[in-house]
UniProtKB/TrEMBL annotation:
Residues 66-277 form the MacB-like periplasmic core domain. This is ABC transporter permease. The chain crosses the membrane at residues 67-87, 305-330, 350-377. It is found in: Cell membrane. It comes from Pelomonas nitida.
Length: 438
């Protein structure tokens, strides 16, 4: 019988956790409202209030053991949210580089710009495709671009290590197809000259990137004439005239990609179909939002997997801490609980009351952990190798409300697991046995 009871508890626990993982914040709010109504309107709920009030009032007398639960869960939530904020910040930085009214065109099955190649003839036909926006002169707003890698000294490296930076050769339309990009210091480069502008994210990552400095790229000296910001993945790049970049790196007249300003977001369908149905072209077009979102998927999934794995390992320790604390708390209140049951209190109010106590401690721990993660890591600058690109990507960690809610859900789940078994033991222990143990 005891085995069946424990097996039933495990099944209940598994079912609750599965439902809890999928539950949005408003679902949890609805559950809390229903619980509050039950405690206000029903006799068993009133009994739960009485038992819970006594238990919660004694928390200050058990400050040390209560702190074990709070600190343990705060640590789990803080680490989890911080690691997930890294994934969120990385994905957000990539997504911000795209939009629904711009498109990027790559060679056929190319997964990224580096592996793509477009000829001058390809670019001419892309400019003539339907759906391409045009400027006041009637010219297609298309930036045909070349992407190459450059090794630069990493800022702050004690051993003088170098890292890979992405250099993008752009056309005059580059700032039009990327309206977020703007010069914040200096000026833009002059076409035909070996002048370069650098993103503020690249300035944070690499040494020597300042106005007036000279860089050696492709065995040629380049002068930094400006610093730009865009608030997205482009912040980590260096931009120069595409023709000069091609000459320096012996790329001929071809380009890696073409970024296109569309007439509107709905124009992507006609634009992409026109290119894919053109027998003279072997290219694929997608919105820049779709492209950059896809570029971030693998890295984001890896970072989330790391965060959840580390959080789960720490959560196991927090659960055992909660179990130990709550079993001790229940044992210290055995006479009180036995007396309540002897005068007519049922088992369910006792179970719910003990779990409310654990849940309260878990909630406090979750709020503390989430608050610390937000204060310390929200906006924290980091960099990593950009999946599918040739350079390091600078990004800011983003502690979003959704991540904070995810952390709170983990905290409450730990509290539920840590309180369930002690609560059931308190409610099912025979009154005479409880009085003897006390």
């Amino acid at each position: 019988m005891k085995f069946l009871k424990n097996f039933g508890l495990v099944l209940l626990l598994a079912a609750v956790l599965v439902a809890w993982v999928a539950m949005p914040w408003y679902g949890a709010l609805a559950v809390a409202v229903l619980l509050a109504l039950w405690m206000l309107l029903f006799r068993s709920g009133a009994q739960t209030r009485s038992v819970a009030a006594v238990g919660i009032s004694t928390l200050t007398q058990r400050m040390g053991s209560s702190a074990v639960i709070v600190v343990g869960i705060a640590g789990v939530v803080g680490v989890l949210v911080a690691l997930l904020a890294m994934a969120e910040g990385y994905a957000r930085t990539q997504r911000n580089a795209g939009s629904l009214d711009t498109a990027i065109v790559l060679r056929g099955a190319s997964a990224n710009e580096v592996s793509s190649a477009l000829s001058r003839e390809d670019i001419v036909q892309i400019e003539q495709a339907p759906g391409v926006a045009r400027n006041a002169k009637g010219e297609a707003i298309v930036s045909a671009e070349t992407v190459v890698a450059a090794n630069l000294p990493v800022r702050g490296s004690p051993t003088g290590d170098s890292g890979s930076a992405q250099v993008r050769g752009i056309s005059e339309a580059a700032f039009t197809v990327r309206p977020n990009a703007r010069i914040i210091e200096g000026r833009t480069f002059q076409p035909g000259l070996r002048e370069i502008i650098v993103g503020k994210g690249a300035v944070r990552q690499f040494d020597g990137l300042k106005l007036g400095a000279t860089l050696k790229l492709g065995n040629q000296p380049w002068t930094i004439v400006g610093i730009f910001a865009s608030g997205d993945a482009m912040d980590s790049e260096l931009w120069a005239d595409a023709n000069v970049v091609n000459d320096t790196y012996k790329r001929g007249s071809g380009r890696n990609s073409a970024t296109v300003k569309l007439e509107n977001a709905a124009a992507i369908k006609a634009f992409s179909e026109s290119l894919e149905n053109n027998p003279a072209l072997k290219v694929k077009a997608s919105t820049t939002l779709e492209f950059f979102t896809k570029q971030s998927e693998k890295m984001t999934q890896m970072l989330r997997a790391i965060g959840i794995t580390v959080g789960a390992i720490m959560a196991v320790g927090a659960v055992f801490g909660a179990l130990n604390t709550m079993f001790a708390a229940v044992a210290s209140r055995a006479r009180e609980i036995a007396t309540l049951r002897a005068i007519g209190f049922r088992g369910l109010p006792v179970v719910v009351a003990v779990m409310l106590e654990t849940t309260l401690l878990a909630l406090i721990g979750g709020l503390v952990g989430g608050a610390l993660a937000w204060l310390i890591f929200n906006g924290f600058e980091a960099s990593t190798m950009s999946a599918g690109a040739v350079g390091k990507l600078s990004f800011s960690l983003a502690v979003s409300p959704q991540l904070l809610w995810e952390g709170i859900k983990w905290a409450l789940a730990i509290g539920f697991i840590g309180g369930l078994f002690p609560a059931v033991r308190a409610a099912s222990l025979p009154v005479t046995t409880a009085l003897r143990e006390a």
